[in-house]
């Protein structure tokens, strides 16, 4: 996955985004606001926004950002307040994964109804607000059937949770996590992507490595005094 980092000025801040341009002949499954579902994807964008993000039209905003980066045709766009310049990238036997990790509000998926998610208390010298989203992009070099695409999302999510727990964060993720799994369309389709299938195992290892590195990096950020 040839991931580019691009920059822009917004709200008085210099913000990063990652852009992947696989081009024609690819499709993706995604939970993203822009290009979510299953469909063709010529590009994938993960854009950082300011902590006090107040726009009420994020899909329009993503379309504007995509156009500003020269992205046309169908694609997938995600937003995060986590530091995109600290994106973690890992590969495993042909599968590429990238993750931006912010864990301000670590969340258990099956929390009791009405229960508030416990926020991490800001440490001395750190801003009161800190980002809380995990965005994951996965590139698989072989075609996947619809069922395998769905299975790949499940596998990647399980690997994400394993990585967070192993990094010391008691959660399954955050309430705003997003994911995109992309694959080419030409050639015979793989029909399995569970964690013990050939490609599912590679997805799991790549995602686990990227998210684990990102979680440890976030923990170091919390522990490092600000100047």
How many helix segments?
Answer: 3
SSE-based structural type: alpha+beta
Give the ordered list of helices and strands.
EEEEEHEEEEHEH
Number of domains: 1
Give the overall shape. globular
Q: What is the distance, rounded to the nearest whole angstrom, between the alpha carbons of the first and last residues?
A: 35 Å
**Low-confidence runs of at least 5 consecutive residues:** none
Rg: 17 Å
Q: How many individual β-strands?
A: 10
Report the mean per-residue pLDDT as an integer: 92
Q: How are the strands of the biggest sheet laid out side by side?
A: 4-3-10-9-8-7
Q: What characterizes the major β-sheet? A: 6 strands, mixed
Strand content: 25-35%
Helix content: 25-40%
Describe the protein's architecture and organization.
The chain has 227 residues and is α+β, with helices and mostly antiparallel strands. It has one domain. The chain has helices at 58-68, 146-166, 198-223; strands spanning 3-10, 13-20, 26-30, 37-40, 44-48, 76-80, 88-92, 95-101, 134-139, 178-184. β7 and β8 form a beta hairpin. The longest helix has 26 residues, at 198-223. The chain starts with a strand and ends with a helix. The model has no long low-confidence stretch (mean pLDDT 92).
């Amino acid at each position: 996955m040839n991931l580019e980092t691009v920059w822009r000025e917004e709200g008085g801040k210099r913000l990063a985004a990652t852009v992947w341009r696989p081009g024609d002949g690819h499709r993706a499954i995604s939970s993203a606001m822009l290009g979510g579902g299953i469909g063709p994807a010529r590009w994938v964008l993960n854009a950082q926004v300011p902590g006090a993000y107040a726009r009420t039209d994020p899909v329009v905003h993503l379309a504007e950002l995509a156009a500003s980066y020269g992205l046309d045709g169908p694609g997938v766009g995600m937003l995060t307040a986590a530091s995109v310049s600290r994106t973690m990238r890992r590969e495993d036997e042909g599968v590429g994964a990238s993750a931006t990790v912010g864990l301000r509000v670590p969340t258990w998926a099956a929390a009791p109804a009405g229960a508030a998610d416990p926020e991490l208390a800001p440490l001395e010298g750190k801003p009161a607000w800190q980002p809380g989203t995990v965005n994951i992009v996965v590139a698989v070099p072989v075609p996947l059937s619809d069922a395998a695409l769905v299975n790949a999302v499940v596998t990647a999510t399980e690997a994400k949770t394993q990585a967070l727990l192993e990094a010391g964060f008691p959660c399954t993720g955050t309430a705003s996590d997003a994911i995109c799994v992309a694959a080419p369309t030409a050639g015979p389709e793989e029909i399995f992507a569970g964690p013990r299938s050939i490609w599912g195992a590679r997805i799991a290892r790549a995602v686990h490595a990227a998210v684990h590195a990102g979680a440890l990096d976030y923990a170091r950020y919390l522990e490092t005094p600000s100047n």
